[in-house]
Fold this protein.
Amino acid sequence: MSGHGDNVDVRAVCADSRLDGTYLSLHHYAFSKPKRDYDGWVADFKQGVGDCDPKRIIVDEFGAPMDSRDDTGDDLDTGFDYNDANSTENFVQYLRADTDTIRALGMGAVYWPAIGGKRQERPTYDYYSLFDLKGSGTDVALGTRNISGIDRLKHAWGVDIDLGSHTSILRNGGGNGCLDVPDLSHDSVPVQVYDPCWGGDNQQWTRTPSGQITVYGGTKCLDAYREGTTNGTEVGTYACNYREDENPDHQKWMFYSDGTIRSVKSGLCLDKDLATSKVQLWSCWGGDNQKWKTS
């Protein structure tokens, strides 16, 4: 049963004895309300619940921007890090408050939306969506827009995870070997697939909420050199740039459910050359040399 108005308040419906035994629907968003801090968002959420048994309530719509733009569509320096408890960003405090409260009260929750929706302001996708969709028919793959958004949803569902820990080696599926910065170099250099996977600092890659893949504690980013968008574009390390006038999409990557890692700028896959250890961009064709595993 829906709450009042836009499902933002279930108190009156919950108090109606004729509806005893039913589940109640609650919506909670930040975009239509004044900015608040964390405690303010918790209070706003609980106001719509009132004295109703929270286990009767399913929060079947809540969400926030999952790309590197704010709710108006303006570019941000970085994507929102929803794991940052010290952030003063309105949407971060909102989503942390919602997911913490949902978990604490033992409520059901459905994030809106997983893939798409009626809002298409980017203009080809709903920027609240958790996933990007590639492919057609039964040959489809989902790419995660913001890994910290997934973390918060898992937290709301009561899943105990190491929030914000997304550093690992990246093992290539086309035989042995891992994504590697040659010779432990801290300069800007082309990367390679190197065997063995030994787990050194030059093989420890971190996924960020902004879509970066960083190494050496975030001092270098994985970069499609010269902002390339064609087959054979060289991939390597470079200083992390996130100024709007530098078109940072060549340093943004999306991890997909088919094991591919794709450039946000070009849509091409991170690819190990079949004849060498070279790493490049190439059209996604499903080969094992374009599959990567975190470990």
Notes: The chain has a mean pLDDT of 92.
